[in-house]
Amino acid sequence: MAQVQRPFLIQSRCIRLLCPRQASRGKVVFARGRHSLHTRTVTDHDIAHLASLPLHPLTLADLVKHGRPPLTTQQLLSSANFTLSILPARLAHRIKSLRNLPFIVVSNPHISKIHSNYIHSLSTLLPWAEREITTLEDEVKFTEVMADLVHTHSNTISILARGFIEARKYISPKDVTRFLDEHLRARIGTRLIAEQHLALHFSSQPHKEMMHEDHAHPGFIGVIDTQLKPARIIRHCENVVGEICELNYGVRPHVVINGEPDYTFAHVPMHLEYIITELLKNAFRATVEGGMEKEPIEITIAPLGTNSNSSPSSGNGDGHSARTTPDETITNQTQGNTDVASTNITGATPTLQTDDAIRPLEHSTPGVTIRIRDRGGGISPENMERIWDYSFTTFNDEEATSTLNGQSPQDSGNGMDALNAISGPGGERKHSLAGLGYGLPLSRAYAEYFGGGIHVQSLWGWGTDVYLKLRGVGRVDV
Question: Biased composition, Polar residues: where in the chain (predicted)?
């Protein structure tokens, strides 16, 4: 399979931390082994104390407040200290949440590995937890810790998927969905905070000589593109999905973009790319399976103005919202910071959070609504109720197990599911999540994280409309 160029993805900056390469005037040497990092033993007291701290929802404004690159030394140190101030508690909450699962589930070697990974990452942060980063030398060492954290948790989703498949006799699908929805939403924030500092590090004034000049992008503030053009990402995702579709089935549906294709706003491009890829996979697959490949998939881009409540939040497909959260609001629940899922399973007292709801910014900010319309026949009524479940998939157990073992869906004889095997957020292996029913609920998690949402409306026998709403960061005067 040919590799597709992804020139607009900021992830390439973070990959540079993990894969040392010669830069224009220096060499990046962050890819050291785990054992080269200074660690401290994590005690139960450490976890209990940090997990008792309230978690304030993360906003896009938090990620741009340190300024537009290149950062000065003081701005870079401020970014490092902000990152350090919020990550230990977030890791501790995830450890506590895992420990609150039924013991036999946590004993599964794959779920236990995730627990160990969180312990390891917390052990690398604790030596920094009670100090302030005041020198560039310390900032470089701390950035190594962030690179290690991103690398350590790169395959969290696929490992958890394997663990819950093996432990499915001991935990209900409903509890699995509830736990994963919370846990994976929290993971989005943890990775985003770490990757933001990594990106700022390489575009900062003290370290910018370590970057190739052709990688500079004046619109980026870390992982946020303030000039993000949805049409550009849509065309890229269309090419990726279309090439796989044509390779496997000999045909590829055509995508038509209308509305305002030149519209730009500020958001995280790798989040939008993942969401669009997943939604196009579903649309392409339905279109091909329905024999309607000559009918175009229509994508409409519409600016979402300030103080606009016209676009629905994520829905259950019947025209009504599946969430009770007010529009444009970010909560600890939508960002997975509540630790409620696992405590409901065990009957323990849930951890209550403060500052439970804030808006993306002090004022409503511009954003975008993207409608994806296909003529693929729609979603059957019996499947509609389950589309947001992490455990819902058209694969059987044998096919799902072969997927997690690294075998592609077409190798298992189910060619029509090949489109499931082409994406994975946050460093996941491309085939690791195929057919496991993670794509749509994860897309919703990414959309809702900063106050957006996904709404699905299906006309059974005709087709499906998916409405994606994203809130931007607003105007950045830095």
Answer: 322-354
Contact 117, 170 (CB under 8 A): no
Contact criterion met (CB below 8 Å) for 207 and 79: no
Instruction: Write the DSSP assignment of 199-217 as a string of letters.
Output: HHHHTSTTTGGGS-GGG--
Q: Name the fold adopted by 11-216.
A: Butyryl-CoA Dehydrogenase, subunit A; domain 3 (1.20.140)
In this structure, what is the dihedral angle of CA atoms 315, 423, 390, 446, given to the nearest 10 degrees? Answer: -50
pLDDT digits (tens, 9 = 90+) for 19-52: 333 233 233 334 444 447 888 899 999 999 999 9
Task: Note the residue count of the chain.
Answer: 478
Phi–psi pair at 470, nearest 5 degrees: -130, 135
* pLDDT on residue 352: 47
In degrees rounded to 5, what are phi and psi of residue 475? -75, 135
Within the chain, how many helices (H) and strands (E) appear? Answer: 15, 10
What would the two tokens of residue 363 be?
Answer: 């004022």
- What rounded mean pLDDT belongs to the chain? 76
For strands 265-267 and 255-259, give the pairing. unpaired
CA 374 – CA 63 distance, rounded (Å): 35
CA distance 300 to 292: 20
Distance CA 216, CA 208 (A): 9
Structure tokens of 425? 């957020």
Cβ(166)–Cβ(332) under 8 Å?
Answer: no
Q: Where are the domains of the chain?
A: 11-216, 224-471
Between residues 313 and 39, which one has the greater pLDDT?
39
Architecture in CATH of 224-471: 2-Layer Sandwich (3.30)
* pTM, rounded to two decimals: 0.80
| Per-residue confidence (pLDDT) for residue 447, from 0 to 100 | 93
Q: How far apart are CA 226 and CA 220, in angstroms?
A: 6
Domains 11-216 and 224-471 belong to one CATH topology? no
pLDDT computed for residue 337 by the predictor: 72
- Any residues with CB less than 8 A from the CB of 355 and at least 6 apart, and which? 54, 56, 57, 332
What is the percent of the chain where pLDDT is above 90? 43
Those residues whose C-beta lies under 8 Å from the C-beta of residue 351, and which sit 6 or more positions away, are: 51, 52, 93, 96, 338, 339, 340, 343
Q: Does the pLDDT of residue 13 top 50, yes or no?
A: no
Strands of the sheet with 265-267, listed across from one edge: 220-221, 224-228, 265-267
